[in-house]
Amino acid sequence: MRKSLLALALIAGTAACLPALAALGAPTEAVETTTLATRLPANAQGAIVATLCPGCAPSVLRLTAKSHFLIGTTTVSLEELRSYVASGGPHNLVIIYDRRLHTVIRIVVSGSPPAIRR
Fold first, then answer.
1. For 38-44, which contacts have Cβ atoms below 8 Å and span 24 or more sequence positions?
2. Average pLDDT estimate for 84-93
3. Is the confidence at residue 5, as pLDDT, over 70?
4. What is the SS3 assignment for 53-80?
5. Range in 22-31, 53-62, 65-74 with the lowest mean pLDDT
6. Confidence of residue 114 (pLDDT cuts 50, 70, 90)
7. Which of 14, 58, 105, 113 has its CA 20 to 30 A from that of 77?
8. Contact present, 100 and 44 (Cβ < 8 Å)
9. How much of the chain is helix, strand and coil, in % rounded to 5?
């Protein structure tokens, strides 16, 4: 039951961003993976190495100033996302990227963020 709720939250968070992406006209793709199989970059100028399709060679997806990060449906900073991922077990993760530029548009991790001090 808990996994179903987490998956539903992840799907809802991803679906919430799709209209905005369609309006931009960006040729986007998404990769579904887990936090165990993906290493998040240390800073906002970093990159993620991801396998974009079964049997494909890994590709580098670069972060940009426009990259967004979410835990469930809550927008967080990269540092908050990294802290959340490091503090718990495995989580589902979706990377939405521009397939022409190989840049990350959004990273969504399943779950509910802890109370965040801002």
1. 38/93, 38/95, 40/78, 40/81, 40/82, 40/85, 40/107, 41/78, 42/82, 43/78, 44/78
2. 88
3. no
4. CCCCCCEEEECCCCCEEEECCEEECHHH
5. 22-31
6. confident
7. 58
8. no
9. 30, 30, 40
